[in-house]
Amino acid sequence: xxxxxxxxxxxxxxxxxxxxxxxxxxxxxxxxxxxxxxxxxxxxxxxxxxxxxxxxxxxxxxxxxxxxxxxxxxxxxxxxxxxxxxxxxxxxxxxxxxxxxxxxxxxxxxxxxxxxxxxxxxxxxxxxxxxxxxxxxxxxxxxxxxxxxxxxxxxxxxxxxxxxxxxxxxxxxxxxxxxxxxxxxxxxxxxxxxxxxxxxxxxxxxxxxxxxxxxxxxxxxxxxxxxxxxxxxxxxxxxxxxxxxxxxxxxxxxxxxxxxxxxxxxxxxxxxxxxxxxxxxxxxxxxxxxxxxxxxxxxxxxxxxxxxxxxxxxxxxxxxxxxxxxxxxxxxxxxxxxxxxxxxxxxxxxxxxxxxxxxxxxxxxxxxxxxxxxxxxxxxxxxxxxxxxxxxxxxxxxxxxxxxxxxxxxxxxxxxxxxxxxxxxxxxxxxxxxxxxxxxxxxxxxxxxxxxxxxxxxxxxxxxxxxxxxxxxxxxxxxxxxxxxxxxxxxxxxxxxxxxxxxxxxxxxxxxxxxxxxxxxxxxxxxxxxxxxxxxxxxxxxxxxxxxxxxxxxxxxxxxxxxxxxxxxxxxxxxxxxxxxxxxxxxxxxxxxxxxxxxxxx
Length: 602
Ligand code: PEP
Ligand code: MG
What we know:
By secondary structure, the chain is an alpha/beta fold. The protein has 22 helices and 17 strands.
């Protein structure tokens, strides 16, 4: 069973070093144990743009530069602190030199002066100054100076990254048994990854529902995120263990440690084999209550594995991958062919196809976004689609056309008001009329559901439910927005609590109000795939669980092993005991699950 991270997995308690091996603690976000070789992904910054400024732009440009320097400095200080507590002062000393360089007038003031005098952008001036320093050091015949040149390059990259935030995809050349180690993995980094290309992930940043975590589950590989500085201590080619069940990572393990993890790896594989035997059986409780158990799909080649994990259809098909890491926007024909392939592959079961949910941290290079201070509160999901009717219409046309080949339902992300639902319905009507006029085969009517992932939607479920055919609770965002905790920020990962009473109330209310309006309520957020939550959600009356294929057999096993009454009792107890904190709820559920399902504890 995948256990939730200890809430106090704080920076200074999360590492130890013995016999040459380094053990780090982070958040387990995708189950399993991987043993492989470090592939260190360093984010290159690409060619540096040279742009002439108007005199009126100079002040803003200087501020942008100083902000990037400050952020880089802060990052270095954090790194230093973490490395010092794990490896001692000696290992951390290098970061002092980095920080000093970023306070050096020959770097900082020289850049701001350059911006002002030459009327050139910060990236260009800064990169040029750093290159000059680097050249001088490289020309000296001394190891010390050569090492210093490496530091200069590192700092240059760090600041440029903060100035521009872009990155190149270097994942095409992964070796066979690679474990990807990096500071942060974004959707664009991983969009081109394919199944079997990588054995696991270990990252410095990220939370349980960051897209990197979701991607690891989609690829079916173990992952631990929020390790703070694994990318600073692991070297390319090192052996590394990623334990995605308990959130542990071991760099350069001793032989004894390797043997211990190999034994656990075998035990986990045996559990998987026995759970896979449930493949063809329904998700039915011992007393005969059926729930829908479907899969979340993030990548095209996951479709082939659906049958193997025993999913009955797709409960969340994230369409973003068709837009990310592409040179150009997908055409209607490409989208239609892809949607058709998916519905045909899943038949006789259906597909719940979510319309484009970009914005936030998913920003395809082909689409221009405005600068936003809070992208997760900005032009994201349905808001983006309503702003860009050209992109939205193309997708809706492809969906209605693909509907000819099998059952599709449409799911709208980031809905916060009924007005948005009505606007989307209007788009659908218009697109239907267009296709009819053009005599293109399509279906005119499709069930339309909405994600409940914005607290406003959860609080007005009764109003929204009147004009929708179903609801799907998106806990990944609901938790982030309701608790005001960034889902990808490892510094506050302990505050990201799906079991917080506020969240449980929102979920319960959504289920009850949806049922009262006569529609079914599902959940496609990661909480639906957390075994710890299964009995509680079942007992609250959830009709559908849409989960990552990697955890689906475990959830089916739980559902099939209990009576519905038993689950209702767990939900009632959780209520009756008036548990006031997420920790209390989690402790209670862990006790129940450990007693009831000891076989899932690996
Ligand atoms: C969610 O927010 O719970 C969800 C399923 O959507 P995503 O993770 O794609 O934002
Ligand atoms: Mg979401």
